[in-house]
Amino acid sequence: MATRKTPETAAVDGANVSKDDLLKYYREMLLIRRFEEKAGQLYGMGLIGGFCHLYIGQEAVVVGLEAAAKEGDKRVTSYRDHGHMLACGMDPKGVMAELTGREGGYSRGKGGSMHMFSKEKHFYGGHGIVGAQVPIGAGLAFSDKYKGNDNVTFAYFGDGAANQGQVYETYNMAELWSLPVVFVIENNQYAMGTSVKRSTKSTTLFGRGVAFGIPGEQVDGMDVLAVKAAGEKAVAHCRAGNGPYILEMMTYRYRGHSMSDPAKYRTREEVQKIREERDAIEHVRELLISGGHATEDDLKAIDKEIKATVSDAAEFSKESPEPALSELWTDIYA
Amino acid sequence: MATDILMPALSPTMEEGTLAKWLVKEGDTVTSGQILAEIETDKATMEFEAVDEGTIAKILVPEGTAGVKVNTPIAVLAEDGESAADAVQSAAAPAAAAPAPVAAVAAAPAEAPAAPVSKASADWPEGTPMKTMTVREALREAMAEEMRADENVYLMGEEVAEYQGAYKISQGLLDEFGEKRVIDTPITEYGFTGIAVGAAMGGLRPIVEFMTFNFAMQAVDHIINSAAKTLYMSGGQMGCPIVFRGPNGAAARVGAQHSQDYAAWYAMIPGLKVVMPYSAADAKGLLKTAIRDPNPVVFLENEIMYGRSFEVPDLEDFTIPFGKARIWREGTDVTLVSFGIGMSHTLEAAEKLAAEGIAAEVIDLRTLRPLDYDTVLASVMKTNRCVTVEEGWPVGAIGNHLSAVIMERAFDYLDAPVINVTGKDVPMPYAANLEKLALATSDDVVAAAKSVCYR
């Protein structure tokens, strides 16, 4: 696993990243975190219903990989999808309004937290059946290969989904047909309440690709620069027509599996320790400050700006009307 | 003692075949396991091996003969030391006492009568030239025509390419369209169905062939959760134009896990369109419509129907719209509603009923979602009696649903309760006699029709 670079060694230029890029990652990760905190709050107020899976803690994964993507690349993920949507540039207002089930939501209130899509941003959901997005992602890659372009698809799934049979059916065909798909395992160490160690004997999840001839690696998923570097390598492999690549992102979710999960399967200390030692946003913050790329005041200004964006999104999501009753009967058939 | 070599049954549904080639000649000595001939079934060309040792005394059916019925003697095998002439003589007698032909027991009802096309079903203009083709050929033509018309249409499934299709539906497509568009998959239904759904979301128009819909149980999550619901869940942004097709329902003697009718299962799902054709013309016209449809379509075929021949309009571009039933036969006494292979029992029953003075109106639903309620209701309002016919199980059947709709919308017109003729409420047995008992028959339909007519 790539180890975290200490602030001293991570000279911004040495890590092949500009000051502007670093600020961008900071901003994007912070947006996800503040957005999710707000979503949690709105859930508590009863404005968001049903299942709501927060992405807090895992922000570096999607932000780092989006930094390795180009226009036309596709992404598909599970139900823990808010971060992916914000990272690929979807409007926080539209995402939040979908969470509140309003007309202004991406699915006009008919999808909810787990089911949003954006053709414009090449975001293909938002899937609620654990693992089902993996063959769908390979299928998106299949469509690009069929059309003869060099786009790739990021198919995100968790350590829990990594035990689904269809993932391995997909590995087999993706390698057999050289599909340009990056399989991104977001290993946050818990499949709901079951730790990786309690659900599988072979805990090196990317290594399962070996059986199918798919290369892969484990990456510090709390380090946005490490994620980006690994993403660039994977994407280059796919674009060159070499077939799929597996990235196992070692990450951590700070919150419960969903809003209703008290997370009794791990200690408070465990969570606290990771927050203190490995937090992805804090890491970039240190890089910016210690590298002299930003002052505390600069970052405070960014914080303020993000808070305003999230607050606007929340306002929009409350003000947007519920879908018209006639919406019940639309969009069943094209 | 000489023995007859009989035309073998080489598939569960084979009734006859072509003796394509003899690989032995009269006077040759053969050993057990030696390949005697090549026999072409409706699905494939198969090699036929000798069971016993001996000398080929006489070839009874020359090579190139088509339509050789299963269990017809095709050659005479003499034992060692027996003369050819004796052998032919001695074989003649026992041939008559050959054991009951296995395939014949399971055989499907006779060839569908060259159906009396009703003037009420104007699927093609009057005077259109017609050609005779099997359901198999019709399906193949539909796919080939649509693949020629749209580069984004492709076919994937088990054995669709190099093997030429487990049931020969895709025969020749690999040659014409190449391996990019006719793709053999590993045996991994959940996975390849998910991939096809993703490809559809990515802008292609996949046709997924299931070797049988029984295997699609492994993939039903993607058919329903991923394909059928995405348009709705995305607020209309993202659809899934895809066709899931393959044989559905019972074939012959293939047991409980390979004999299920899924019509009612899929017809329940909003977001899916469900087609179950009977005739070759409908198979072709509806499959072309399915491939062009922007929604996921479940297209339920039937193995027994693949080899049946029908008249198909000889038109350059012939399609049939969804949601339009076909009235095969007009009548005034009772409405018989069916679809798919159920139609063959139903048409047969209508003939029998006519002989007894009951004029049945026969409606083929053709598509189960959307379903042409109006045609059914108009007919029931005319005849005041209705029997539904399907192969599937009786609980939650299409007939149950139609009964409810008829009760809600035509209650005052009914002179008798609606009866649902269905398969029996049991897993499909293997034994020939039990299997026959488990399936709906034309006699069941006749009995139900007479009962609602109080006859």
Automatic annotation (TrEMBL), chain A:
GO terms for biological process: pyruvate decarboxylation to acetyl-CoA. InterPro entries: DH_E1 (IPR001017), PDH_E1_Alpha_Subunit (IPR050642), Pyrv_DH_E1_asu_subgrp-y (IPR017597), THDP-binding (IPR029061). Its cofactor is thiamine diphosphate. Its EC number is 1.2.4.1. It catalyses: N(6)-[(R)-lipoyl]-L-lysyl-[protein] + pyruvate + H(+) = N(6)-[(R)-S(8)-acetyldihydrolipoyl]-L-lysyl-[protein] + CO2. One of its GO terms (molecular function) is pyruvate dehydrogenase (acetyl-transferring) activity. Residues 28-324 form the Dehydrogenase E1 component domain. Keywords: Oxidoreductase, Pyruvate, Thiamine pyrophosphate. SUPFAM superfamilies: Thiamin diphosphate-binding fold (THDP-binding). The pyruvate dehydrogenase complex catalyzes the overall conversion of pyruvate to acetyl-CoA and CO(2). It contains multiple copies of three enzymatic components: pyruvate dehydrogenase (E1), dihydrolipoamide acetyltransferase (E2) and lipoamide dehydrogenase (E3). Heterodimer of an alpha and a beta chain. This is Pyruvate dehydrogenase E1 component subunit alpha. It comes from Paenirhodobacter ferrireducens.
UniProtKB/TrEMBL annotation, chain B:
Its EC number is 1.2.4.1. One of its GO terms (biological process) is pyruvate decarboxylation to acetyl-CoA. Keywords: Lipoyl, Metal-binding, Oxidoreductase, Potassium, Pyruvate, Thiamine pyrophosphate, Transit peptide. Residues 2-78 form the Lipoyl-binding domain. GO terms for molecular function: metal ion binding; pyruvate dehydrogenase (acetyl-transferring) activity. Its cofactor is thiamine diphosphate; (R)-lipoate. It catalyses: N(6)-[(R)-lipoyl]-L-lysyl-[protein] + pyruvate + H(+) = N(6)-[(R)-S(8)-acetyldihydrolipoyl]-L-lysyl-[protein] + CO2. Pfam families: Biotin_lipoyl, Transket_pyr, Transketolase_C. It comes from the Bacteria. Gene3D superfamilies: 2.40.50.100, 3.40.50.920, 3.40.50.970. NCBIfam families: PRK09212.1 (NF006667), PRK11892.1 (NF008854). The pyruvate dehydrogenase complex catalyzes the overall conversion of pyruvate to acetyl-CoA and CO(2). It contains multiple copies of three enzymatic components: pyruvate dehydrogenase (E1), dihydrolipoamide acetyltransferase (E2) and lipoamide dehydrogenase (E3). The pyruvate dehydrogenase complex catalyzes the overall conversion of pyruvate to acetyl-CoA and CO2. Heterodimer of an alpha and a beta chain. This is Pyruvate dehydrogenase E1 component subunit beta. It comes from Paenirhodobacter ferrireducens. The lineage of its organism: Bacteria, Pseudomonadati, Pseudomonadota, Alphaproteobacteria, Rhodobacterales.
